[in-house]
Amino acid sequence: MSTLTDLPLQPMQVAIVGATGVVGQMMRRVLEERNFPVTRLIPVASERSAGKSVRFNDDMIPVVTVEEALTLKPDLALFSAGATTSLAWAPAFEEQGAWVIDNSSAFRMETDCALVVPEINPDSISGKRQIIANPNCSTIQMVMALAPLHQAYGIRRIVVSTYQSVSGSGAKGLMQLHTERSSNCRLTENPAYPHRIDMNVIPHCDVFLDNDYTREEMKLHHETRKILRSDSIQVSATAVRVPVSGGHSESVNVTFGQDFDLDEVRRLMASMPGVVVLDNPAQAAYPMPLEAEGKDEVFVGRVRRDFTAENTLNLWVVSDNLRKGAATNAVQIAQWLAENGLLH
Questions:
Q1: Would you please indicate which residues are annotated as catalytic (active-site) residues?
Q2: How far is CA 152 from the centre of its chain?
Q3: Could you tell me the domains of the chain?
Q4: For the segment 259-278, what is each residue's pLDDT rounded down to a tens digit?
């Protein structure tokens, strides 16, 4: 795990907007784990949470409103409070000189905002606004596995089915799963999903659009093309919610512009920082969310040629959606800014 302990510590105030949420809590943990040089943490939440305290580096720190946080002029603001909040407040922090790393979908497809996975495209930050978009969790893990293969073989088309844990819906999704599991009946009061999730799978993540794909599915299409810098890549996705507490899984079928060697495919993915190839079906060794939860790596297995189509590969990709899919990726972006003298 990389840290910033060798960097000179500069006075750095860091705000977390959405600090009491599931991702906000994980952001605090990852900042601690990576020894990020926080001289003052500013936890931000809604007015109903103001006055409560959160723990950071063994200190209890009072939660403030976003208006109060703005007056404190942080150097860095990590947003994980939804697109509406980001659209309303991220530009205000940017205007004061802060770097903003936003975990919502608000700025991902804006041409003047970088959409960044630090292992792949941190150079895209140059010349853009000081609002940096954190990609969708499902997109991050998929492009981590595919980026070295795209560079080698040129991706033409991806067909992906996701198996997304309830933690992707925040505390509300976790509450529904655990309540239904303990009571053996559907949660009917304020549920996260339109159907029971325990003992079930729901092919419905986010809202349906006019083309009958969900917004989550279209994020995989648009964001992959932007991160890999290729408008010719076609991505067809089906996003499914499964009764798993943490960790997203994906079945990925990818067609390249040229043929490939399977051993070379495994070598390329294994050489990608942050990717672990776990691929020994004879020994029942393959990635599972139970093993990926709590880890920052993206795990890839079930690597095999699609015998029904030319130049086509099948992969199984698993990652912790709260860590690399959200909080860890955001903190890694902040690390890159600090290491390159942009954040101080």
A1: 137, 248
A2: 25
A3: 13-135+326-339 (3.40.50.720), 138-321 (3.30.360.10)
A4: 999 999 999 999 999 999 99
